[in-house]
TrEMBL record:
GO terms for biological process: gibberellin biosynthetic process. Pathway: Plant hormone biosynthesis; gibberellin biosynthesis; Hormone biosynthesis. Keywords: Coiled coil, Dioxygenase, Iron, Metal-binding, Oxidoreductase. The lineage of its organism: Eukaryota, Viridiplantae, Streptophyta, Embryophyta, Tracheophyta. Its EC number is 1.14.11.15. Residues 207-308 form the Fe2OG dioxygenase domain. This is gibberellin 3beta-dioxygenase. It comes from Juglans regia (English walnut). Belongs to the iron/ascorbate-dependent oxidoreductase family. GA3OX subfamily. PROSITE patterns: FE2OG_OXY (PS51471). Transmembrane segments: none annotated. The keyword Metal-binding applies.
Length: 361
């Protein structure tokens, strides 16, 4: 955990404090400050009508056709919701309770656990805030393991329950993410032999890594001129998101535009990450998504970013390559990819494309 890909990437690309420390949202509940006023482009088509058009697929993990449904969802959307995933509803309720408990603390108390410029863990603005002139109307808390140091700064005598819940959720997410990852790979015709790195032998540094990130989007005085989370793709292999019951998440789909991801009680959202896009040689898309705000609901969400062990190079899988489909990307570790993202944001793929960097031997 000390030398994780994520921690190493933050060390190489520190974040300025003015892109870490959130606003006191409660003190600005009446008027949106200029620092948070976005000129939102009008070239997006209006959001699709939820009753007439296609929406993000919902897959029952017990469905006999689960593999082909998964492949279709990953090729067409890069995102789907899963039900019958086996995560206990009381754990999800407790997770939401602890998350709301954290974000409802006064700002000065949350700042006791603020991230430092070279660290990924703790309280602060989304990392992608460095790429925009205006700030987003959101705050977050990043966890790897139980994050006792930061939690005990928030609640000096009363952090055990928070840490226990987060740790239990991380354990459950790890198993479920690996199960869904296996499903995605089988749906592409791959066997466990093809992806041995997925289940590395325990011990040493060869362990998959993950980050649990809690997101909070307070009620906003002027939602149409503010941004919850700007359009981005996830820098993971796979992200599992619990969005509780508030609206706001949208995913971008070719020929459709921005489509809302309607909350379904107890369901989890699965998001294809950039590394899965690379592994599948572009066959599975890592989709753009964003979060818009509302005037009346304080949205929270919990995103579990799953990635490969620190020394594994991710590149298009052999089975995805032939003379018609040459390898589009060169091999990268997760750290190298996070660094490319920290420098080039949504253009990161361009920097690891084969035709840009190396000539094929
Ligand atoms: C493992 C990850 C995933 C990161 C980068 C790194 C650590 C921080 C993560 C997030 C969490 C919040 C949304 C996001 C968009 C952000 O701003 O910081 C994520 C980002 C990404 O998916 O790129
Ligand atoms: O809040 C959400 O639903 C989206 C969060 C997200 O996209 C992220 O954390 O990467
Ligand atoms: Fe995301």
């Amino acid at each position: 955990m000390m030398n994780s890909s994520i921690s190493e990437s933050f060390k190489s690309h520190p974040v300025q404090l003015n892109r870490i420390i959130p606003l006191d949202f409660k003190a600005h509940a009446i008027k949106l400050p200029d620092s948070h006023t976005w000129t939102l482009s009008t070239d997006n088509p209006p959001p699709v009508d939820p009753f007439t058009s296609e929406s993000v697929p919902v897959i029952d993990l017990d469905d006999p056709n689960v593999e082909s449904l998964t492949r279709h969802a990953c090729e067409q959307w890069g995102m789907f919701q899963v039900t019958n995933h086996g995560i206990r509803i009381d754990l999800l309720i407790e997770l939401e309770f602890q998350t709301r408990r954290l974000f409802s603390l006064p700002l000065e108390q949350k700042l006791h656990a603020v991230r430092s410029p070279e660290d990924f863990a703790g309280y602060g603005l989304p990392r992608i805030s460095t790429f925009f002139p205006k700030l987003m109307w959101s705050e977050g808390f990043s966890i790897m393991g139980s994050q006792v140091e930061h939690a005990s700064k928030l609640w000096p005598n009363d952090h055990t329950k928070f840490c226990d819940v987060m740790e239990e959720y991380e354990r459950e997410m790890k198993d479920l993410t690996e199960r869904i990852l296996g499903l995605m790979l089988r749906s592409l015709g791959l066997t466990s032999e093809d992806v041995k790195w997925l289940k590395p032998k325990d011990g040493g540094s060869r362990r998959s890594e993950a980050l649990l990130h809690l997101n909070s989007y307070p009620v906003c005085p002027d939602p149409s001129h503010a941004m919850g989370l700007a359009p981005h793709t996830d820098s993971s292999l796979l992200t599992l998101l619990y969005q509780s019951c508030t609206n706001g998440l949208q995913v971008h789909k070719e020929n459709i535009g921005w489509a809302p991801v309607h909350p379904i009680a107890g369901a989890l959202v699965v998001n294809v990450g950039d590394l899965m896009h690379i592994l599948s040689n572009g066959r599975f898309k890592s989709p753009m998504h964003q979060v818009l705000l509302t005037k009346s609901c304080h949205r929270i969400s919990m995103a579990y970013f799953y990635g490969p062990p620190v020394d594994v190079k991710i590149s298009p899988l052999m089975n995805m390559i032939d003379h018609k489909h040459p390898a589009l990307y060169r091999p990268v570790t997760w750290k190298e990819y996070l660094d490319a993202k920290a420098m080039h944001f949504n253009q990161a793929f361009e920097f690891i494309r084969n035709d840009v960097h190396i000539s094929n031997k």
